[in-house]
Amino acid sequence: MTFRYSKLKLFYDMLDLIKNNLFILFILFLNAGSNSMFMNIVQWGAIAVFGFSFLFRIYETLFTKVVFAEDGIHIHKGLFSKSEQFIPREKFENVQTQANVLQRLFGVQSITMETGEATSDVTLKFVSKADCIKIEDYVLRNGNQEKQVGEAIHGSERQVLFTTTIRDILKASLLSFSFLAIIPIGLNIWSDVHPEKYINVDTVMSHLSGWLLILLVLLAVFAAVGIGVFKTFNSYYQYTISMDNERIYVQKGWLSKQSFSIRKDKVQAVIYKQNGYQKLLGVTTIKLISAGEILPSEDQNLNEFFPYLPTEKAHELIAIMLPEFQLRSMTHYASPKAKKLIWLRPPIFASLVAAIGFWKPLFFILGAIVLVFTYINRIREYRHTAFRLEDTHVQLRSGAFTVETLVTKRAKLLELQFERSLLQRMFGVMSVKLTNRAHPVHVTTLLDIDSSLQPLITSWFEARTKDVEIDPHSQYSSLKQEACPIPSYVEVNSK
Amino acid sequence: MKFPKPKKVIYHSIFLQKNRPIVEVCFSSHTHILWAMRRAKMYLIAQNISFKDLSLFEIAVLQKFQSQLIQTKLFLSLTVSEIAWIIFQLKGENRMEVQYQQISPKAMKVRNLNELITSLISLVVITGLYFCTDYFNWWNWLRYVWIALFIITIIGIPWTYFVSSPIYYKTFRYGLTDDFLYIKSGVWTKVEVVVPMTKIQSIELIQGIIMRKYGVRSIEIKTMQGGVTIPHIEEEVAIKLRDDISKLARLKELDER
Hints:
The complex is a heterodimer of chains A (about 500) and B (about 260). Chain A is an alpha+beta fold and about 500 residues long. Helix content of chain A is about 40%, strand content about 25%. Chain A is globular, with a radius of gyration of 29 Å. Chain B has 3 domains: about 10-90, no CATH class; about 105-170; about 170-250, PH-domain like. Chain B has helices at about 30-45, 50-65, 80-90, 105-135, 140-170, 210-215, 235-250; strands at about 10-15, 20-25, 75, 100, 175, 180-185, 190-195, 200-205, 215-225, 225-235. Helix content of chain B is about 50%, strand content about 25%. In chain B, the strands form 3 sheets. Chain B has a 4-stranded antiparallel beta sheet with strand order 4-5-6-7. Chain B is elongated. The chains are: A alpha+beta (about 500), B alpha+beta (about 260). Chains A and B meet through strand 18 and helix 17 of A and strand 1, helix 3 and strand 7 of B. Strand 18 (about 415-420) of chain A pairs antiparallel with strand 7 of chain B, so a sheet runs across the interface.
């Protein structure tokens, strides 16, 4: 399959450039008549920059060719100085698509194929929906299952597991206090316009009758709720989690759309996240860790599921999608020896804050608050720390106010680290750090685990060699022969 | 046969010594062992593991139990997966005992010389600053700061010679098996790292001027997370180690080439 940008992209580029530089263009337009030297230079400079960036985009649009070959993607770029980049197919971790309003008018999307390394990510900005599906299919297809592709796709229909209903959205907008968003917006407008300069507030208030005032307040409340619901609606309308036999898809957005898809075996870990407020509501956020970069999003990253998913529903989803990442009960907890450590560790930050109190006495009170907060933090962290080692999986729970439970496979772990500070050694405890592959790496720290568990954890980690499959091509013997075969015309001297 | 479920099952630690399994297990009573065995047996049947392994397990546990050599400290409930893990250990396929090695004793000399040079330079700078304070009429209290720094630097030299360098030399350990790289380091905070060979991305040999004088090299091993450094080892050892690691690290796992 070969991909080239459609010529329509030139038109889109023009509009996109205008949209991005709207502010500059506006200023130039305002000063169009002025004859000052400075403005002239600025105008010509802006026109030059604008022209060059448009030319650059034309160049990119016309002379980019992407070949989707069996072994990987070849990207050909340029006319005068040509470059070719090759990315092997196995390197791709996930696929993300985005469509802003302008792109949706053209019926296209931008698609990003993420690898573990930033240099080899591929982004195509103007791809029709049909092509998007093809590319997604190409990238996420397992190399070993090449032959059964046709059957596999027909055999497993995409199955929708979760969609937000209007009720969900209304509930979410209420729970997230999004109607309070009118306060910063209103303050912003107020500080920009300064209506108190033009109108005398007191005289206006005295003229308003009681009923009119109530009406105005009601109007404000309606506006607040409307804006709140619109905000939530915009980000969570048609929020869909679906899957087929080998992939998981997440889609969301109303005006601008976004999607995220990943192959199930590329999921590095699943994180169950719950802060205090979520715990009160009985909801859980689920996060899928991918080794590829996750594109930044306005309010919530795409690899995190709908934040107002009821806990039971969240567990059910994981049980269906990734049954091996299901949560089970913990077996090991923070050592009771560490109870004293909660009080013995010096509260450094709090004392620093209190030290400022010698100059500004207010900080004494602040220091006291920070101190109390530190100890609550420590107690909660001690209570939450737990883990469970299984034959091929591990479960780690940590965090003070936001409790994070990470479930991952042993084979996916990058490194194991034990740390014992002087104080910890006195009480026979240690910190355990386990690293997961993500972008950047995800480190989970378990504080104050009993030291005598070290051999158990170490040998559990060492047994990972049983889980991983070694790539036969990287084996030394095969590599030696293939990498540098001795040409027939070379005489080998052997003494 | 029915056994009462124990409240607490106790075991201390399990390790292997030259392929001979030593299991330090202590249950609170004999019935509890039988209970654990039964659970293990059920697990084995489910996992299609032969009973030969189980008998080995029984013997090891019972011997230890009868001799009562163990002082138990840790209280944990033994789950099925942990019993399976014990059996896995007893199969003897697992653990190669790690042979930890020390860095070169020349590391002390290199470190001392490094420290001496930096100390001398900072002494010169501090003296210069002291006279500057005099000459340009800076704050008066700055003089005391310079004097204090001067004394600290002076004391620092014998401190590195007699205390910190020997400790540094003694604490750092590294070990290598076919599958993992082990590093132990740290004086105040002791750190132990286990890095799988397949996750190592690149290896670098580093040699500064002072290190060249003493014929030692450092190895920097880079992983996805960052990396670890083995400082100051003998030149031949370093080159051999580099070759060993690069040979072992060449293997890559199937899911992330």
